[in-house]
Amino acid sequence: MTTTLLEVRNLEKKFAAKSAWFKPKQYVHAVNGVNLQLAERETIGIVGESGCGKSTTGRCLLRLIEPSSGEVIFQGKDITTLSKREIKNIRKDMQMVFQDPMASMNPKLSIREILSEPLLAHKILRSEHEQLLSETMRLVGLPEEHLSRFPHEMSGGQRQRIGIARAIILRPKIVILDEPVSALDVSVQSQIINLLQDLQEELGLSYIFISHDLGVVEHIAHRVGVMYLGEMVEVAEKERLFEKPLHPYTRALISATPKTDPDEVKERIILKGEIPSPSNPPTGCKFHPRCAFTQDICKAIKPELREVEGRKVACHMV
Amino acid sequence: MRKLETYKPIQARVTYKSPLKIKSDSLQKLSRDKRAIVCIFFLFIVFIIGIFSPLLAPHNPEELFYESILEAPSKEHLLGTDAIGRDVLSRLIYGVRVTLTVSLMAVTITFFIGTLIGLICAYVGGWVDNVLMRIMDILLALPSIILALAIVAVLGPSLTNAMIAVGIASIPGFARIIRGAAITIKSSGFVEASRSIGSSHSWILRRQFLPNVTGILLVYTTLFIGVAILDTAALSFIGLGAQPPTPEWGTMLSEGKNYMLDAWWLATFPGLAITIVVFAVNFLGDALRDIFDPKSSR
Amino acid sequence: MPNILVVKGLTTQFEGEKGPITVVDQIDFKVKKGEVLGLVGESGCGKSVTSLSILQLLDKNGKISGGEVFYNNVNLVSKSEKEMRGIRGKEISMIFQDPMTSLNPVLIIGKQIGEVIEEHEKVSGTVVKQKVVELLKLVGIPRAEEIYYEYPHRLSGGMKQRVMIAMAIACNPAMLIADEPTTALDVTIQAQILDLLRSLKDELDMSILLITHDLGVVAEMCDRVVVMYAGQVVETTDTRTLLRKPRHPYTVGLIQSTPHQSKGERRLKSIIGQVPTPDQFLQGCRFADRCPKAMDICHSTIPPLFELDGQTSCRCWLYDDKKEEVI
Predict the structure, then answer these.
(1) What chain A residue is nearest to B5 in terms of C-alpha separation?
(2) Containing domain of residue B119, as a range?
């Protein structure tokens, strides 16, 4: 649990915003200085609302989107400096599962063809394909006959199992899960979460679990990072975070999540206002316009992530 | 994060088909579409006529019957004879060969280059797309026949050059359609998934793009055959395509136009032949479009 | 409290390639005046089709093939399209999951809300504008006078849903049908919108039929709940009883599979198998193949809705009177 597998330092991603000719280019800071460590067999959850940059962060790690600056160190190498050819080798060890399994599979290809793609891309010996295919199908709990099916002949849950199978067939070390259960029904969602946990144990995987659903993250993650407008506002062990969230945004997020327990004391914090647009973020602490504890300092100076009570928080007021 | 599904009854039913079934489904739909059947049957006969023209034609297309110059349709010459005494029916039958070969070759050129440009533009994007598409836009601003004219003018008038010209002239329109179709595929999740796996560009183009544009390719290739037949005939009509004495419909039409008042059969039959064949091809294209691309038909 | 909406034996079918497909199968429920009734289920259970059937907003290939919908004791099913138009928006209005597609992109916000008022009430232009601005303020939109002139794409998702709500309540309807109103929204925005719906309900004395897949939203909003599975009602009860003492094995599974309920356990409880589509509905109890307590009778005969007490009914053979001791 202690060896660091992946380390992200000051990851930044700026998108050029559409601007008129001859005007200075405008940038949208989608990800602004994110730091992360992922240990072996660990699950780190990244939560936040739309526009917080959590998906962009996930894609930057795989260089599906090129990061603007920062380092992503994996097995002693900085991924951000690798050539396209070298990055291909990295992708063997780092795979991704997408939110919408239907959209992430070519409808014209059979499951066998979909699952063979990573094997062919990484030149795995033909003689090993069959064994890997059947073993992986067993791992994700689907009968081997399904290999000859097509994506739309399957239900949502089965399709996501295929999405997971495609990600683990090369036996990677890290799997980045981008909202893997958000498009699924509740009763199926729990099957998939259980499956992910079983696979983690069996294959020794590390997960980066990106989600907006705090309930799911609370269940599956060991550590959780909360993002708001491209920045980490709080990173903590799961138990600590959910028992005593420190950052006002984390608190609001947890209280806003509907609970199914009718007796739970509901101390609801309803945030005022909207999530600001990342193209025009507030000054200082980006959360200050919606925060109930805003002081003058929050409007002027951006709080840094610092150690408080055994975790990292970016807030002047804690 | 945005999509938790609610029940959509119509969509659910449409998607429950395997591509294999879609293939047999499409065939089934095709077999139920009467106009498609009629067109296919007709074009098949035209094709057979082209292949067996030496057997089917009553005379040699270049044989001169001095005693019957400009003769009206009769038992001996079913569709009459032309100004130097050649049998119009035989020339028409041999003309099928020329017309079909030229238009099919031209479409082959359009197909390969157009698909390539379309896919590259959609997949690479950025400045490559911008440059190529602006060039296509400029070419599109000219009617394809004018463009073909210009190309033949440069290459010199001959049937081969007409074929090349017609093929090239259709590329811009074709490339644009393919690019449009491919761009929606590029933004789809499975292309991103493919990249995340580490697949190569050529793999992604072959395995992810191509299978998803085959339907559209089929439809527009068919429709462009019609265009090619017309353009070839038009080029020949103005003397830049097939050269006499080659029996080509456009040339025949052109020769016949001088005798319109005295010998109506000279221009009428080649004209009819062109019209009917193009009509059949376009009809078939429309039927295919209804089957493969139901969205654009309405 | 009198019932404002009574749905009796409502059945809706869709044209399929192999004959009609029954998507909603003999649904019964009542909405009392001033109450929030939750209609809960997973995708394909027919909850959205139910709501569209109530307002007769089904697509052309779908039709109500049986049953009645009483609104204030008047049967809506027998109403003509013209009569229904007078009822939609004025008496019963609806908000949808996706506010982005429900707003006309080329009309300013104010005009879109104004149209609803003009459709149902004879009032002059200035009065309409005044009323629209009031409505915008009522649904918590800041700078209402400016937003009046904005186009929909300039607003965020939460703001658009507020606009949709303003449109829905423009004519003081007695009943609001909210179809997954917060599913497309972020959690903190969802909390705002739910809060708004709650306060509007009290302020305007509305009844709400809330359609959702999210038991958390049910727990926060609803007085009573109707659980649907595969086109049928499987359980009806009050919210507290549902969450504390669910009766139907499906409801039990659904509640247990939310991560929140298995705190501290490594594995989540889950229901085996998949949610069926209408062409996969079983002969007997439609949940039988996924049910941990399935008996022989479940596979052969569809259970009726057993009345358990005045409040609760449940479609499960476990609650057959003679077998009450089994549980």
Answers:
(1) A183
(2) 33-46+85-292
